[in-house]
Amino acid sequence: MTERQTRIPTDIPAVIIAGGLSSRMGQNKSALQLGARPLLDRIIERLRPQACSIDVNTNAVPAPDLPPGVTAFGDTVSGHLGPLAGVLSALRHTERRHPVSSCVTTVPTDTPFFPTDLVARLAAARQQADQIAIAFTDDIMHPIFGLWPVAIADDLERWLITDDKRRVRSFIARHPMVAVHFPMIETKAGAFDPFYNINTPADHAQAERWLALLEAEKP
After folding, report:
1. Binding-site positions for GTP
2. Which residues are known binding-site members?
3. What's the CA gap between 189 and 176, in Å, rounded?
4. Which family does it belong to (predicted)?
5. Which positions make up the binding site for Mg(2+)?
6. Residue 8: pLDDT above 70?
7. Cα angle vertex 3, ends 129, 182, to 5°?
8. In this structure, is residue 24 part of a structural domain?
9. In which domain, by residue range, is 112 found?
10. Which of 36, 67, 181, 189 is 20 to 30 A distant from 159 in Cα terms?
């Protein structure tokens, strides 16, 4: 199914997970520039056609500047408990702000090339209401690129509080899950993963090169 053939859902909110410590980057990744634009702005722009609303989970003080209609909110559990704390916060935020929505899409703030049909394909892949849909490339799981049922929020909160290791895959294994496979991005310089994420200055430099290639190859 191509991007144009995939129906765009109209009732699924999205939350950008930006609550990490960014320790390997040495600065808040939400404020990082990519192609002379804030990385967070690029993520919002890529998500905007895909979701009924966009908000940002961040523990940054002060909160990042956001466009009209996009709100920031912090973690609902304290202690920097990892990326699933951001997912839980997204679920609780959806319960409050979008009570008619049964699920929410999450994307991390450091992955600017994710597919433009991400939300539609995750939604289309689910066969039952309690399924989590997770993005993959080949056999690589990208667990924060997911579509999460709001109904799992209580179980996730209990798990975060009681599980010492808090491994993302361990929690996902507790629930029905469908893997949604996405192709690599092809360029004249070779293929790369659409879920390429920026964790270090070296990753940032490579992302600048990928962006320049994609911009140069636009029709």
Report:
1. 17-19, 29, 57, 75, 110
2. 17-19, 29, 57, 75, 110
3. 38
4. Belongs to the MobA family.
5. 110
6. no
7. 70
8. yes
9. 14-216
10. 181
